[in-house]
Amino acid sequence: MNAITGTEKIDLIEEQSNSAAVSDVEAGIRDFVRNDVANLRRSIDIVAEQSPEVSVNNVNSLIQRVAGASIRDIENLISELESLRDLLHAEAKRVQREISGYAQLSQAAMKSTRMIADNVEQWKGSAEGLRNS
To answer: How many CB atoms lie within 10 A of CB 109?
Structure first.
């Protein structure tokens, strides 16, 4: 009883096409690596045959090409970090100003409250003095 339904057939066909696509990608990667390694070997052979000055220049240019993108990325990252540092400094100053303003407001409120309490106390004393007389 090996009956395969329609959906199972579709799943089997999709699985086969997926495995074929994976195999194609793997083959492409293998070919790319082989070609890349072959190019590197040829470059090494050419460098070995040339004079030491030319070899040094080739090595320097290779290092610059390889490191160029990384250096640009690092420089971009550094500039972003510097701008974030500046933003944080500006925000810290703003927060300090806000805290200072709230502290001054709090002190003014405390003084006003003391003055009101003192005046109320004086009025109570005056009112009691008038009642007693």
So the answer is: 10
Instruction: State how far the Cα of 97 lies from the Cα of 103, in Å rounded to an integer.
Output: 10
Q: Give the HSE-up count for residue 9: Cα atoms under 13 Å, Cβ half-sphere.
A: 5
133: helix, strand or coil: coil
Rounded CA separation 110/73 (Å): 55
Q: What is the DSSP string of 61-125?
A: HHHHHHHHHHHHHHHHHHHHHHHHHHHHHHHHHHHHHHHHHHHHHHHHHHHHHHHHHHHHHHHHH
In the numeric block, which tokens belong to residue 81?
């970090």
pTM: 0.42
**22-63 confidence digits (pLDDT tens):** 788 788 878 877 777 666 666 665 555 556 666 667 777 777
Q: Helix (H, G, I), strand (E, B), or coil: what is residue 1? A: coil
Residues counted in the chain = 133
Q: Rounded to whole angstroms, how far apart are CA atoms 92 and 84? A: 12
